[in-house]
Amino acid sequence: MRSFRYERSTDPGRAVALVAAEPDAVYLGGGTNLVDLMKLGVARPRLLVDVTRLPLDSVEPTPDGGLRIGATVRNSDLAAHPTVRRDFPVLSRALLAGASGQLRNMATVGGNLLQRTRCFYFQDVSRPCNKREPGAGCAALEGQNRELAILGWSPRCVATHPSDMAVALVALDAVVEVLEPAGARDIPLAEFHRLPGERPDQETTMAPGGLVTAVRIPGLPFGRRSAYRKARDRASFAFAAGSVAAALDVADGLVRDVRLGWGAVAHRPWRPRLAEAALRGQPATEETFRLAAEEELAAARPLAYNAFKIPLIRNLTVRTLVELAHRSPEPTGGSAGVTR
Length: 340
Ligand SMILES: Cc1cc2nc3c(=O)[nH]c(=O)nc-3n(C[C@H](O)[C@H](O)[C@H](O)COP(=O)(O)OP(=O)(O)OC[C@H]3O[C@@H](n4cnc5c(N)ncnc54)[C@H](O)[C@@H]3O)c2cc1C
Ligand code: SF4
Description:
By secondary structure, this protein is an alpha/beta fold. It has helices at 12-20, 34-40, 75-80, 82-87, 89-96, 101-106, 109-114, 165-171, 189-192, 273-279, 286-297, 309-325, and strands spanning 5-8, 25-28, 47-50, 59-61, 67-70, 175-180, 183-188, 211-217, 226-231, 242-251, 254-263, 338-339.
């Protein structure tokens, strides 16, 4: 690990100015991803700007019944927040499905969104990787790609985004508040992470040096009828092989409205809008849920070792929606939903 400088700021503008002034500067949240990558030689910053003392650690209600979540709120605190548990159980459950208790105590909302892919070759500096070194090639395309993308990938990169939290947030229409060197702006979460295209090294639509300051979730009356279901190789401490976030509004046996998110299928948390459109106004039945998932998955292009993700995501989607369709709309605390 090469030597680096460490700064700590209590003012967001000052933190952005510090990073903007130094080409190899990065923000440090809980460090649970960044420090590992520094030890592996994947990240080689010269300056770390610690953001955990910024005044961005509160969860506040918004007038529309939603929430504004500061970027330095710890994952454990967000998962345990009473309003999150009651109004958006999908978010609480997605957070609790990730990492371990100790890691969640350290991990921040901003760091969780910006965590890097778990692609094996990205983390091995001896292997070619366009994300680490543009133009180097992609070892995963013809290599071990069981965990990688089936949707939206390019020949330059087939990596997936690893966050569970982001899958719930994309389903909930979250908006990311960022402070860039040019000023503050909002970016819908569905547009925050990029597809790889020609430049997999450019992972978000934030300007270089951008700081995530908060995430807003708009009010969603049927957010209480929501769940997160994650399939993984081990029951804990494992990233998703596939995951589904869902919120469902059913009246008189018909789907009045629905929100979906899919994880571990693409370079960004995937919002299956075709599936959502196919569900609205239709009978809330297993058959409808299956057909809707299949409509979205028609665009899937599996790699050599991950065709299993197509039926996996379809089945997770069906199972989660069936469960929600039969659940009382009253708050229940959500589904633990772990599938192996
Ligand atoms: C063993 C293990 C298992 C795990 N399992 C899971 C899992 O199952 N599911 C899951 O979702 N995650 C999992 N994780 C990942 C974990 O959730 C992330 O490491 C964590 O969320 C990152 O948050 P952090 O605050 O520690 O970020 P850091 O490590 O501090 O930073 C991560 C990145 O975000 C940037 N950054 C941090 N804060 C900001 C900000 N405010 N604005 C802009 N950029 C910022 C940093 O520069 C860095 O590039 C696992 C991690 C480990 C080590
Ligand atoms: S899939 Fe992406 S991250 Fe993995 S080796 Fe290829 S370019 Fe690198």
